[in-house]
Amino acid sequence: MKLICIGRNYTDHIKELENEKPTDPVVFLKPDTAILLKKQPFFIPDFSEDVHHEVEVLVKINKVGKHIAKKFAHKYYDEIGLGIDFTARDLQAKLKEKGLPWEKAKAFDGAAVVGNWMSKSNIDNVNNISFSLEKNGEVVQTGNTSHMLWKIDELIEYISKYFTLKIGDIIFTGTPAGVGRVNAEDKLVGFIENKQMFSITVK
After folding, report:
1. What is the DSSP letter of 37?
2. Residue 100 contacts by C-beta under 8 Å, 6 or more apart in sequence?
3. Domain extents for the chain?
4. In this structure, CATH architecture of domain 3-201
5. Tens digits of residue pLDDT in 58-112
6. CB–CB of 159/171 below 8 Å?
7. pTM for this predicted structure
8. In terms of C-beta density within 10 A (0-12 exposed, 13-18 middle, 19 or more buried), how is residue 33 classed?
9. Which of 150, 92, 84, 90 has its CA nearest to residue 115?
C-alpha cells in the first residue's frame, strides 16, 4: 500500500507559499510507515521546529489499474476520506533550496493522518466536497474540491500513467490555503461538510 500525494492543487495555497503554478500535477509518495496510528497523538519530530498541518481530501483505490482513462476513473474508488499531510516546512525549504527531494520533510513517521472513510454514494458530487480543519476549536483551513486545479478523476488518470494503482492505495489530493504551524497540545479536528472525520492531539 502506498500514499500518493498531490502538491500545489489549489491556487490559493500556491499563492500563500509563493510557489509557481504547475503545468502538471506535482506528485510525491509517502511510505505506509508515515501513517499515524489510530488513537495515537502526533509527535513533533526533533528535526523540525516548524511542522505545518495541511488538511486534504483522500481517495481510497478499490481495484488495480494502470493507464486509467478519466472517463473510467470513477470506477476505481468508492470511499472518500479526510487527512493531514504534515510537513516539516523548515526542512522542506532547505531541501528545495538544494534541489533535493522532499521525502524527509513529508514522509517521516506519523506524517500522514488518515481519518475515517465515507461511502462515495453518500456524496452528491465528489467535485463539490466542502471540508475544513479546526485547531483548538478555531477553523484554520477550509476548502472545496471544486477549487482543485485537477479534479479527482483527472488525478487518477495522471497518476496511473506512472504508477500502477493497487487496492488500498490512498491519494492525498492537495491542500487549500491556511496551512500553519502546529504546537504541542494543539488539538486538530477535521470535517467533511459537518461530519467529523478525525481528531488528533499534537505532542
Report:
1. P
2. none
3. 3-201
4. Alpha-Beta Complex (3.90)
5. 999 999 999 999 999 999 999 999 999 999 999 999 999 999 999 999 999 999 9
6. yes
7. 0.95
8. exposed
9. 84
